[in-house]
Amino acid sequence: MGPMSPSGMRSDPARGARFLQLALVAAALSVSASAFGQAALPRAHAHNDYAHRRPLLDALDHGFCSVEADIFVVGRELLVAHDREDIRPERTLQRLYLDPLRERVRAHNGRVYPGGPSFTLLIDFKSEAEPTYAVLREVLAGYREMLTVFREDRTETNAVTVVLSGNRPRALVEAEAERLVAIDGRLPDLEANPSPHVVPLISDNWRSHFRWIGEGPFPEDERTRLVSWVLRAHDQGRRIRFWGAPDTPAAWQALFHAGVDLINTDRLGELAAFLRPRPGGTQTGAP
Predict the structure, then answer these.
(1) How many domains does the chain have?
(2) Does residue 9 sit within a domain?
(3) Which among 118, 52, 73 has a CA at the least distance from the CA of 262?
(4) What is the residue range of 109's domain?
(5) Spatial CA neighbour of 61 closest among 109, 93, 104, 123
(6) Model confidence, pTM
(7) Phi and psi dihedrals of 221, rounded to 5?
(8) How would DSSP label each residue in 127-158?
(9) How many helices (H) and strands (E) does the chain have?
(10) What is the distance of C-alpha 208 from the center of its chain?
(11) Nearest partner of 123 among 133, 131, 115, 113, judged by Cα
């Protein structure tokens, strides 16, 4: 199924059914935070989380349930940085992310947030895929108690779900019958339809597919395209995310109401305020 055309939507008798489906999806995604523990925001994703003053901890303080960390392999160490010149030996993946997550999971009866959903740790490989994964696989084995396990025919969800992005070792991951990681797919994967136990998340560059930069009305043809991709991802049992989208309330609202699962931001506090329900249960971003 390709993107629906705007004219097709206006004349298609299935329009009402499709948008009813979307409304039900959005309602399920925006269920009150109290169902996950008061602080948790399942749709909030901290882009380049390590750039914040307190990596991971700032995101957790705001209730984010997904963070992104870029890594390089240096010897046998996994170091968190966006560029090689920013590498510092003390900023390991374990110290900044895995150790504090494990502490929280142990303190909160097996969850990052009390009663909360699985927490997504999106690890973006900046160094070469295979040697980086070789080290990461060994490191993650020491944290198995809290990690989601992926098998050929099922996903055993745990407190923390690790998804690999960037220089993804896709062939290696697909060849493993059991693993502690999954792959961050791209929009063409909606056509290829790989196993959702290998590719549970679709991410892509907003600017490669949309002209809208958050100013003025969201063009209807682009809204239709976005909705189509969201529905298709959900039909296949996947979540969907876009990087490079405008990081503004107008864009957050468009993404939210289209049913996008993870909303990317560098503005943690503002997105958290947008996503938190108002008194009475409605979302701050609701019209």
Answers:
(1) 1
(2) no
(3) 118
(4) 34-275
(5) 104
(6) 0.85
(7) -65, -35
(8) S-HHHHHHHHHHHHHTTGGGB-EEESS-EE--
(9) 11, 12
(10) 18
(11) 133
Q: Look at residue 165 and tell me if it is in a domain.
A: yes
pLDDT tens across the length of the chain (287 residues): 344 433 333 345 454 445 444 444 444 444 334 344 447 999 999 999 888 989 999 999 999 999 999 999 999 999 999 989 888 999 999 999 999 999 999 999 999 999 999 999 999 999 999 999 999 999 999 999 999 999 999 999 999 999 999 999 999 999 999 999 999 999 999 999 999 999 999 999 999 999 999 999 999 999 999 999 999 999 999 999 999 999 999 999 999 999 999 999 999 999 999 999 765 544 555 43
152 within a domain of the structure (yes/no): yes
Let me know if residue 14 belongs to a domain.
Answer: no
Partners of 277 in the β-ladder = 283
Q: Kindly list the distances between the CA atom of residue 266 and the CA atoms of 56, 97, 101, 239, 280, in Å, as whole numbers in the listed order.
A: 12, 18, 20, 20, 28
Tell which residue, 90, 83, 73, has the closest CA to residue 48.
83
Instruction: Copy the structure tokens of residue 215.
Output: 């100013």
Q: Which residue has the tokens 């909030």?
A: 44
Q: State the CATH number of the domain containing residue 197.
A: 3.20.20.190
- Cα distance between residue 78 and residue 230, in whole Å: 33
Kindly give, in sequence order, each residue whose CB lies less than 8 Å from that of residue 65, ignoring residues fewer than 6 positions away.
Answer: 36, 40, 41, 42, 43, 44, 112, 113, 116, 117, 118, 119, 120
Q: What are phi and psi of 241, to 5 degrees?
A: -150, 150
Q: Supply 4's token pair.
A: 């629906």
